[in-house]
Amino acid sequence: MRNLSILRDSVCAIDLKATDGAKSQLVRFCIESDTGNVYIADLTHGTVCYLSSNCQVLWSESLQNASGDGLGPDGHITSFAFLPDLEALCVAAITGELLLVHTSREVQEIGKLEEGIACSAWSPDQEFLAICTRDRQLVLMNKEWEVLAEESLDALAEPGADTAADQSKLGLSSASIAWRGDGKYFATVSLSAGKSLACHHLYDSFHLHEAPQGLHPALAWQPNGRHLYAAHLQGEHHRVVLYEANGLEHGGFDVPRTGKLTQLSWSSSSELLAVVLSESTAAVEGEQAPAEMVQIWHRSNWHWYLKQEQVYPHAVAVTVAWDEAVPLRLHVCSTAWYRQVDFCMSQDVSSKGTAGVVDGCRVLLTPLQRALVPPPLCAVAAVFHQPVQCVAFGDHDGIEVLAAVTSNNKLAVAQAKGSDLWEPTTEAELDEMEAQGIQQPVIQPHTLALDPPLAEGATVRHVVWLTGLPSSVLVIATPLPQAGGGGVGEHEGRDLLQHVELSWGSPDEPPHASVIASSRAPGCVRSAAAAAQGGALLQMQDGSMWVYSGADDQGLSPCGAGANFPVPCSYMLPTPLAAIQDLGPGTAPAVGLSEGGQLYWGCSPVQGKCTSMATRGQGPGGPFLLYTTRDSTMHSLPFALLALQAAAPAAASAAPGLPVNKGLGAGKAWNLHSAMHAAMRPQGGQGVRDVVVRQVEQGARLLAAPPHGVRVILQMPRGNLEGICPRVLVLAGIAAHLQRGEYGEAFELTSNNRVDLNVMVDYAWPTFLTHADDFVREVQYDQDIVDLLTSLKPGSVTGEGGMYAAAMPPPPTETKPEADESLFSLRGPAADKLQEAENYPQSRKIELVAGAMRAAMLACPGGQGRFLRPILASFAVVGEVEGALGIIKQVKERQLAAEGPHQAPSSGTAEESDRHGVARAGQAELSAEQGLKHLLLTVDVERLYRTALGMYDVQLAYMVVAHSQRDPGEYLMELQQLVQAPTEGLRRHAMDMHLGRFDRALQHLIAAGQEHFPKALQLARAKGLLRELLHLVGERAEARKAVLEVYGEVLSQRNLQEDSAVAFIAAQDLPRALEAYKAAGHWQMALALAGRMGWQEGQVRRLAAELVDSLSSMGQLAPAATLALQYLADVDNGVSLLTQAREWQEALRVAYKHGRDDLVDTVVAPASAEAAATAVADVREERERVSKYLARLQEVRHKRSAMEAMLAAEEDEAQPSGHDFDDTASEASSAVSGMSAYGGSTTTGATSVTGSSGRPASTIGGKKPYKRKQRKDKKGRIRQGSPEEERALGQHITALAPSPKQLSEAGQLAELLTLLGHEADARVLQQQLSNLVSEQQAAQQYVTDNPPPPVPPHHSQQGQRPDGQTPAGPSIDWKWDILRPVSLPTDT
Predict the structure, then answer these.
(1) Dihedral, CA atoms, 993, 999, 1002, 1003, nearest 10 degrees?
(2) Which end of the chain is less congested by CB atoms within 10 angstroms, N or C?
(3) How far is it, in rounded angstroms, from Cα 226 to Cα 166?
(4) Own/partner pairs, 748-751, CB within 8 angstroms, 24+ separation
(5) What is the pLDDT of residues 89-116, one digit of tens each?
(6) Is 60 exceeded by the pLDDT of residue 1240?
């Protein structure tokens, strides 16, 4: 749906004169692509070289030479080409001469063919020259002028053809040759003797099977090699026919002119075909005069469009040639002037989304906001009297208007029926069309009469409506040189601007038009567009922007440096008015796309490698810029973000916050900025996953973004149209609907575009809770409510960290619903929780939304039947299956109560509703069976079955099974067994036992009667419910005693002896309680119970002796010694037990108290000596370990320091001068921290290789990490060479500090040794321990002063104490002063 517009049209006059000074006529011309020079050959054999910019004559040379090295008087030029390799012109004459005209003006004759040359053509690579002689001989030569092949065209004719019927020689314009773009094939056409059309390979040839009738010598091969194009005369009109390389016809198109077709020429991009026509009586400005025309054709979707028709009145010998370097540049030359035209393909779309496609005399109109009709189809066609040159859309009182300029320089306008409605809609109009046999709706535009003529007779290039002015259009034209060779005078290179004002009358009458001003542009206008703030925007050839705002002297003014494009842009769109109003003055007025694919907004670049763009002026989220890239992605960006990107980084960083964005993401500016800035510069596929970037089909182009909507129209490479909804526009549209309370439209937009339905609830939370009734009322189908409920999930998709957090515009206000009773008038267990809630935390989103929706549905008339599915879903999503089954039970009971003969016909409607899965308002209520089938889709049948049994409703349970996919017979016997119990309580007990609800089964069994108590006691003991049973039996003494006794036995079996004793005491079973205390080692309570039971002294002594033995075996030596002394008076055993318990002071006290001094010598003294020897040995070993660890730690740290210094020195040498910071410097310490001073292990923050295993930690979710099996004795082992060796050494040194208990025991032992006369041994013990403490504290201080380097997290060990921390404990004075070492001075 693209039209052809003219970017640049430069015209200059040329003056061809014969040697006698008379006017001459153009014969041939060619272009030198490198320099742009134009070479022209005239009728008098003169060759002139012109400068293409201003047609200045560089040199001229005559090809007629009396000496014989030129052309004779009859040597008409048949071909004319420039050869860059030879830097010369190759000229072929009908008399057979082949000449080279060098740029040095030297004429060289290559040779002469006596037969004469009818036509010739060089291959695209200029390696071969094909020549067709006048006597129908085909000659192939190379660039060294060697003949490669020669063949007669008559030999290619079909067998049996009469080739001797016409033996006349070929004349001028009776034959032509065209090469294919790759140079492998060329085609010839000759109009004598059979009018043959042949296609030749370089070393082979074949002829068409049927010689076409009316063949003309105009021939062109599409550069991409697809088709060969030839002209045929069919009656009074020409037809251009396509041929395959094998000679088969492949369609074509009719040329809507009756003149002579003289030339076909393809652009180098194979996109445009130029057709040159000559008419002797053409309608030019209302008069009949000779004229020549150049038509530009374009093919899309196998339909040929006439995009341009340039009419040149009174022109002579018009010839065209496409530029080889610039694909869409056309060179047009005549006897009087030379013209260079730059085209571009662009679309004409109105601000309301109506597209207009030029197709000759028709403009195909399609309102894209209403229908997607790809051309050549359309909603309505505007039919003009002449081919259309350019079109423009405008607005008149809210109704679209179309202005078009035809090829005869007439201005015509058409007006829509209303807004963007162009097609007929009334029955009368449709009936009239049917009566006339019109299938395609058409409208007849009004042609305006102007005086003076439109554009003063100049060639119109652009027409644009002027916004802000009453029905005015601006016409931009390029004047042609005057007849007679005159130039354009002082206005040369400046386009003509003509301001036309229209006065509208009735719709059936043409508006009155008048030219109110004419002026000149400051240069050649490249493109024009309606300005958003009024007037028209004009882009000059250098990219500068000007605005035309009226007919006064100051009507044309520059827009400023910030509005100019850095490079000229081929396609330009005005910035929407809403964006200019939001961003304020200084906003760039237009967005431009250059030929290289660079997108600019004013002087600021936006994106490179773009292929198309469009703007959406109004709609949710504000104005947007959309563009596609060569990576097949489409970007949708708000203009507010583009303004931030264009702002200076310093200004952006100094600002306290981003400007207020009334569109996308306002209030979340920084999150939005970061998200979209990443999307604007995508890396790989990461940017495509963002909400502002999406993948599109390769080659797709943006066509339009209709206002007030979320749809964007793309045209695919095949020509079809597709409407897509960018996610960022969809989210903005959803937010807009939700803000206006349009929940039905919001849900439709959300579901149609596959947006997470949680956005309906999460946006502006908790507003949805108070509008649940609006949602239920506006949503048409109950299945939509079910979809919303089943899609609820924890968290927020619009909150911080949500998938739509940065793309959703913020809600206008943070509202909180008032807690009214109507909102919480719910049923089921969730009602009490909701009524108690003081606020609405989003962590309870599912519960709150389900409750609010259920309340809204139940409040509607017939709610339980009409919204049965959604109500069941509201219970299912919160796991309240019992509540859902309760609803089904109520509906079933209501059905059974209302059953009657007259109710049967209503079931059909309900079944139909169930079949379609939706229920509309006014339809029959759904049955319980239909509701149950729906519930089975979301809840497992086994869970429903067990829940129904838990409700003690066998019929409901059977109903669940009957409507599931399972065999009801498998459950029938089970249900029959469950209902066989004689009483209701026992039936419920059986169901609870089947469901494993043993606590409820126990309750029902107790309630069934006293005779079931033994069974209840057995159940409680088996299932661990004795505490519950104790609560259920209450104050019944016998039952309570039985439960307590069983409870005590169970506790005893679980080795909870003290708890078991308490249970036996509660059951008044004191002997068993005493045995439990004795087994637990609780000797005080055991002796207390013996006293309470009145035991005799002998029994108590035996009990004490048993307790001494059991306590000794348990390691409780001090309590055993107390029992032996107090209850058994066994001093020997008591002192022995105290010495084993290391209670030295108490052992001495007891021995001397009972006068047993011998025990001190025989028991206490040997034990203390042995303990002292063991303690000294342990302390010495600990000292050795402290010294060893400290030495290793100092060695490792010394080597690490040396390595750090070496790396720092290397970095300083490699550091370039003038740089104060290098990223590698910050990584030096971390790199060294991962190195071992001895081993070959190196680690960084990401990987590590330690020891012999280099396997990294597993990062695959759902799999257990790799674990190395190690022996328990290796736990805490210091691994030499590992990265954590320094840390482990410090931790081991910290762990070697003596504990407070060890110091206290050593103090008592030293005191005892001194008392027993072993002062030397006591001093050795204390001094060794003192040395250990001092050495360990010094080593600990070293660890604290020199902390180890940080270790990566995967190397750290659990359970290790942080560096520098010593074991916490009370300060204990354990050193005896008399045992402290004495330092005496020595004699010097």
Answers:
(1) -120
(2) C
(3) 33
(4) 749/710, 751/784, 751/787
(5) 999 988 888 989 888 888 888 888 888 8
(6) no
